[in-house]
Design a protein that fits this description.
The complex is a heterodimer of chains A (108) and B (114). Chain A has 108 residues and is mainly β. Helix content of chain A is 0%, strand content 57%. Chain A has no helices and eleven strands. In chain B, strand 7 and strand 8 form a beta hairpin. The termini of chain B are far apart. In chain B, 36% of the residues are buried. The chains are: A mainly beta (108), B mainly beta (114).
Chain lengths: 108, 114
């Protein structure tokens, strides 16, 4: 099955810093999503980005499908950005495979 | 436009009891997925259903677990004779019957087995 690897596993930053989270996947996919799981456990959809680049406020994402990786950029970090960021991929309309996540902690 | 609804949000069961978790997909969505998240881990796929059909149950434990998505009403994930190892967060997701494969997640049900 598809393997999804995320890096770094943990990241501690000062408020206001920028960060880049990476997701590598082992096979061609037609679905790639980034999620933020907040400290209360809720999963929030950030991007649906099987290819290309998207931006939403301080967050942006780029997926290079031919090279099998995606990047999530967070600029001017805020404490509310803390939590776990998951990358998840799938082929078709079937199950999505989650990476193990990047745990982000933003210090005030 | 309400999102994916799950209830209950928290459920406590004693070993040997049954747990029933409910999921109402977003309006217009006909595909439902269940995932399980153990503490400090990522989400793992359990089952994919469309109305009255189980499409993929490759992630479901062979015993005690079952799922349904009837023609009317919510999808149900049922766990019989719960054990402590079933304690986890169970998430439901839905997606529309279109070319978009984006899945939208509910708030989850946190099951604690005592």
């Amino acid at each position: 099955g598809i393997q999804v690897e995320q890096s770094p596993p943990d990241l501690i930053l000062q408020e206001g810093a920028n960060s880049t989270l990476r997701c590598n996947f082992s096979d061609s996919v037609n679905n790639l999503q980034w999620f933020h799981q907040n400290p209360w456990g809720q999963l929030i959809n950030l991007f649906y980005i099987p290819s290309g680049t998207k931006q939403n406020g301080r967050l942006s994402a780029t997926t290079v499908a031919t090279e099998r990786y995606s990047l999530l950029y967070i600029s001017s970090s805020q404490t509310t950005d803390s939590g776990v960021y998951f990358c998840a991929v799938s082929i078709g309309d079937d199950k999505i495979i989650f990476g193990k996540g990047t745990r982000l902690h933003i210090l005030p | 436009n309400a999102g994916v609804m799950q209830n209950p949000r928290h459920l406590v069961r004693r070993r040997g009891q049954e747990a029933r978790l409910r999921c109402s997909p977003m309006k217009g969505h006909s595909h439902v997925y269940w995932y399980r998240q153990l503490p400090e881990e990522g989400l793992k796929f359990m089952v994919y259903l469309q109305k009255e059909n189980i499409i993929d149950e490759s992630g479901m434990p062979k015993e005690r677990f079952s799922a349904e998505f009837p023609k009317e009403g919510p999808s149900i994930l049922r766990i019989q004779q719960v054990v402590r190892g079933d304690s986890a967060a169970y998430f439901c997701a839905s997606s529309p019957p279109t070319d978009s494969y984006e899945q939208y997640f509910g708030p989850g049900t946190r099951l604690t087995v005592t």
